[in-house]
Write a structure and sequence with these properties.
Belongs to the enoyl-CoA hydratase/isomerase family. The chain is an alpha/beta fold and about 290 residues long. It has helices at about 30-45, 90-100, 115-120, 150-160, 160-170, 175-180, 190-210, 210-225, 230-245, 250-260, and strands at about 5-10, 15-20, 50-55, 105-110, 115, 125-130, 135, 175, 185-190.
Length: about 290
């Protein structure tokens, strides 16, 4: 598939999605929204892809929404995708939801400015690494709007409500060290070391784990953030162990360990993953 505002490359089991409007600091557009969603559709469908890295071309990761249309930038709502009632859906939210639903782990390699949607789109990524030159900002109130891209859900869960409110209420820009201290990012790297560090992490995942188990584990961890009781997790864990315990991957994982050799997991994400998220009221599932 040909892309314009992003690029997608796959090498040795790792997909790299690059926001590709370097001359505009990779400002977010409607086209970029649709292309990002399509890119994650492709990575989910490709069994050769074991992990996804998202980064930006040039000096910025993403400087936020493209404001080139001036004062009416936000007047028509978030995107050309509408609800059944005709309300425009937030474009950043559509991207965040697609990342949340990814079957592959997602690593953000934040190489520069990540402001507005440029930072909120990274929140549903599993792990975020940043360059020393990265700058972050939840600047929505400074533009007369409100946080988007599902950030009112993700941000407090990542950094706590006190830090989230301070960043949102002030709209201030802050650097990589502040982001690291607050837990927004996992590590800080020199510009030349950022992508190699992200790739090393992705390769560790790809080389050592069963893709179907990763797809399920990813959804278990994210969905249980909103669980009301440990019993919710126990139900999901129990069903997951039952389903994966009888799989060819489970047999291979145990036998390869006993034989002291690398595992070769046969199950494929594209063949489908078990539904381990039961109706909480199902009497057959305690």
């Amino acid at each position: 598939m040909d892309f314009h505002d992003i690029s997608l490359e796959v090498s040795n089991g790792i997909a790299t999605i690059t926001l590709n409007r370097a001359d505009k600091m990779n400002a977010f557009t409607g086209r970029m929204m649709h292309e990002l969603i399509s890119a994650f559709d492709l990575t989910d469908a490709n069994d050769d892809v074991k992990a996804v890295i998202v980064t930006g071309a040039g000096k910025a990761f993403c400087a936020g929404a493209d404001l080139s249309t001036g004062g009416d930038t936000f007047a028509k709502g978030g995107s050309d995708v509408k609800t059944a009632q005709g309300i425009p859906r937030d474009g950043g939210g559509l991207v965040s939801l697609r990342i949340f639903n990814s079957l592959k782990p997602v690593i953000g390699a934040i190489n520069g400015a990540a402001v507005g949607v440029g930072v909120t789109m990274t929140l549903p990524m599993d792990i975020r690494l940043a360059s020393e030159s990265a700058k972050f900002g939840f600047v929505f109130a400074k533009r007369g709007i409100v946080p988007e891209a599902c950030s009112s859900y993700f941000l407090p869960r990542l950094v706590g409500i006190q830090q989230a409110t301070e960043w949102v209420y002030t709209g201030r820009l802050f650097g990589a060290q502040d982001a690291l201290s607050a837990g927004l990012i996992r590590s800080v790297h020199s510009p030349d070391e950022l992508l190699p560090a992200a790739r090393a992490l992705a390769e560790e995942i790809a080389a050592n784990t069963a893709p179907v188990s990763i797809a399920l584990s990813r959804q278990m961890l994210w969905r249980m953030l909103g669980a009301s009781h440990p019993m919710d997790a126990h139900r999901v864990d129990s069903r997951g162990i039952k389903e994966r315990g009888k799989s060819a991957d489970s047999k291979e994982g145990v036998v390869s360990f006993l034989e002291k050799r690398p595992a070769h997991y046969p199950d494929r994400v594209s063949d489908g993953i078990p539904n381990i998220f039961p109706n909480w009221q199902d009497p057959e599932f305690f």
